[in-house]
From TrEMBL:
<feature type="domain" description="CobQ/CobB/MinD/ParA nucleotide binding">
    <location>
        <begin position="7"/>
        <end position="182"/>
    </location>
</feature>
<dbReference type="InterPro" id="IPR048089">
    <property type="entry name" value="McdA"/>
</dbReference>
<dbReference type="InterPro" id="IPR027417">
    <property type="entry name" value="P-loop_NTPase"/>
</dbReference>
<protein>
    <submittedName>
        <fullName>Chromosome partitioning protein</fullName>
    </submittedName>
</protein>
<dbReference type="InterPro" id="IPR050678">
    <property type="entry name" value="DNA_Partitioning_ATPase"/>
</dbReference>
<dbReference type="InterPro" id="IPR002586">
    <property type="entry name" value="CobQ/CobB/MinD/ParA_Nub-bd_dom"/>
</dbReference>
<dbReference type="Pfam" id="PF01656">
    <property type="entry name" value="CbiA"/>
</dbReference>
Length: 213
């Protein structure tokens, strides 16, 4: 089983949006997928409750000490587990990174999102030195159309020496899909769907070079 997570110490940067849409898109591509919701706001669990019975399962995990056992309990039943990281203290971040094959760091085009990432990157690189994994990438999220902030953010992130992926544009379709218990790939917004499909393609390509549990 591959484990993909969304991690950032700041709230409101799109961790749950990316985790939910990624997980659902992987499921629609035929994979068995589960979500581990460590977000205190329970966004993924609320999304699951508002959707249809065919949606993937979502498991709530409140404590860092429970994350490993919950993840390991899914290994034989699922192809991919997606961890919605929430805005947590360092202990939970460390536990999530330890369990992950790939860590996605959502970044809005704002200095306030970039500054707190240094600690996350340090945790990832420390784990890489010990275990050789996880892979990691920034995902620029909620770009503002018609501005240069996204490009400036991408350039600022180069200092961390991690891949920077194009993510999402600030679109109402994401909030609407979340409230309707679906992903944007099931919505009528083709541009939003293409953004998530691109993120999903990048995830699959990265995981294809990583070991499987």
């Amino acid at each position: 089983m591959h484990v993909v997570s969304t991690v950032h110490s700041k709230g409101g940067c799109g961790k749950s949006t990316i985790a939910i849409n990624l997980a659902r898109t992987l499921q629609l591509r035929g994979l068995d997928v589960a979500v581990l919701d460590t977000d205190k706001q329970s966004t993924a669990q609320n999304w699951r409750a508002s959707g249809s019975d065919e949606l993937l399962p979502v498991f709530g995990v409140e404590k860092p000490t429970n994350l490993e056992s919950t993840s390991q309990g899914l290994v034989d039943a699922f192809d991919v587990a997606v961890i919605d990281g929430g805005a947590h203290l360092q202990e939970m971040h460390a536990a999530i990174i330890k369990e992950s094959n790939l860590v996605l760091i959502p970044i809005q085009p704002s200095p306030g999102d970039i500054w707190p990432t240094e600690t996350i990157v340090e945790l990832i690189k420390t784990r890489q030195e010990v275990a050789g994994s996880p892979e990691a990438a920034f995902v620029i999220n909620r770009r503002k159309q018609g501005t240069r902030l996204g490009k400036a953010t991408e350039e600022a992130l180069r200092q961390f020496e991690l891949p920077v992926w194009n993510g999402t544009v600030d679109r109402v379709a994401y909030a609407e899909a979340l409230g309707n218990g679906i992903s944007v790939v099931e919505s009528s917004d083709d541009k939003a769907a293409a953004e998530v499909e691109s993120i999903t393609d990048n995830v699959i390509e990265t995981l294809s070079t990583n070991g499987r549990r």
